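== Sequence entry ==
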Amino acid sequence: MMFNADEKFNIENAKREIKGYINARSLLWNGLTRNVVIAGGFFTSVLQNKSFKDIDIFVLNNDVDVYNHLTEGYHSASAMVQVSMVEKGEWRRSEMMSYMHNTNIVDVINNAKTDAQYILTRYQTREELLAHFDYKHCKVSYVPEEDKLYINRETFDCIKNKILKWNNKQLDQPNQIYRKSNFLNQGWVLETDKKEEQSYGNILMQSYAKLKELKEEAAAKMLDAYELPVGGFQSQKEYVDAFRQSQREYADAFYDEYLAKTK
């Protein structure tokens, strides 16, 4: 589906915004653009008319020369020089959990004065870089060397409708629970596709839901039998009630444990 006139205007505006910040804040040292891709939450914020937190500037192909220029030598500087630069309140090395697990991320350095986050990577292409992003709405990217903004219909709709749609599911990563909760608290909605609905975890939950139902039915049949006019009715009824409650608690406890492991 093509973009309509209003959507094209919003997309062009996002491109103007990032180019404006590149120039106004000197984000690219002397206009250095080799192996540079700008992507991530900045574009989501602009397209939603909200203030942004930072600007993620990725350097591909482990291009240390470009990265050193963009970070004014911080990356390769001695520990003493790095401490001095940090004390000046401008440069510092990031400890973001979202990048710590990724072996393709070599270094992450923040510039407090420009709100730029420079990320040195081993990814060779823009496509390879974006493939590791967790959600579809994060995949807007700008390549300064081409002066081109990349965005597709799916990504645009996710941003405008605040839909969390998986691009690369990373539930085993410690930062993912925080990111997911943060988005949901801001009114985003998590989309569950058909493949996910048939995933092992969901089938497992369905199986235990059915198991709970069957145990309830079994307990009811037992209770019906015990209610016949035979001796020991009261104690047997109490036993069945206790059995039924224990099965409810078992199924509920398993379900809660499963949810806790798959957030």
Observations:
- Confidence is low (pLDDT under 50) at residues 229-233.
- The chain has two domains: 5-191, 196-261.
